[in-house]
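Hypothesis: this fold can be encoded by more than one sequence.
Test: take the structure tokens below, design a sequence, compare later.
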């Protein structure tokens, strides 16, 4: 009997041990965090390289200057062209009183070349090109063998730049700046056409036309005349004189000014007198 009990107890303990081992779970290991931290690269900044030179900007235009005649009768002259604030062309020469050019004087060039291996026809263009390239007369190098000529060039360029651009004399149309006037003859009614035209930078910029009596009365301002003409042709001098003036400023050509309907005679007087006045501007 004791053996049976002991055997039963042994079997019970074995079963408990087997049950405990089968129920134990192995703890799974957590995977390593593989998430990468993204580093933000700073935005690339473009550096704007500005021009800090602070150079003085020249006014656009034509610059001219001339010096004094030297003991041999040569006078330095220069013309500079400035566009967009830069010297774009230079024309330098030395001339006699009658206008003869040292640069074009073959004998002078040959004599100078025989002595120093260079002449005005060689170094004048070199000086001009150097000025356009360097934009600074003080940066223009003295030409070997032409020290005096180089100095004359630098001095006259400085004089031209200091004086500033000269007023334009003409344009493609050939008009000189100024105010030009003309007057016609008195007609059978006692009216005389008069005109004043202002030209600036080669262009007609203002026109004042009228017809006046001997005592200076204005047809444009004559209310009775205007009313009478308007009653007949629906237009008067106070209307079409300004139209003719505006047309000339717009078209820059008296022959291109159209005849005003109802004012054929007045339009013809205007064109004829405008052409007469502008003759002096050519």
């Amino acid at each position: 009997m004791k053996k049976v009990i002991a055997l039963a107890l042994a079997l019970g303990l074995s079963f408990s041990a087997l049950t405990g081992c089968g129920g134990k779970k192995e703890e799974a290991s957590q995977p390593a965090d593989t998430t990468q931290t993204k580093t933000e690269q700073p935005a690339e900044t473009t550096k704007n390289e500005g021009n800090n030179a602070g150079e003085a900007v020249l006014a656009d235009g034509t610059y001219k200057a001339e010096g004094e005649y030297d003991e041999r009768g040569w006078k330095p002259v220069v013309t500079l062209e400035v566009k967009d604030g830069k010297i774009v062309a230079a024309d330098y020469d030395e001339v006699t009183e009658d206008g003869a050019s040292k640069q074009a004087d073959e004998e002078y060039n040959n004599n100078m070349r025989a002595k120093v291996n260079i002449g005005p026809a060689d170094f004048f263009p070199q000086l001009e090109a150097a000025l356009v390239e360097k934009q600074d007369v003080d940066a223009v190098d003295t030409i070997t063998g032409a020290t005096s000529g180089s100095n004359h060039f630098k001095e006259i360029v400085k004089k031209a730049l200091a004086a500033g651009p000269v007023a334009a004399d003409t344009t493609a149309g050939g008009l000189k700046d100024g105010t030009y006037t003309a007057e016609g003859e008195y007609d059978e009614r006692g009216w005389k056409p008069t005109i004043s035209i202002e030209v600036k930078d080669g262009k007609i910029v203002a026109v004042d036309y009228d017809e006046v009596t001997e005592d200076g009365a204005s047809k444009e301002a004559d209310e009775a005349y205007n009313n009478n003409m308007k009653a007949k042709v629906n237009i008067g001098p106070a209307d079409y004189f300004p139209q003719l003036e505006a047309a000339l400023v717009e078209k820059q050509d008296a022959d291109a000014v159209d005849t005003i309907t109802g004012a054929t005679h007045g339009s013809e007087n205007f064109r004829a007198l405008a052409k007469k006045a502008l003759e002096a501007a050519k």
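The chain has two domains: 61-163, 178-281. The longest strand covers residues 86-95.
Hypothesis status: open.
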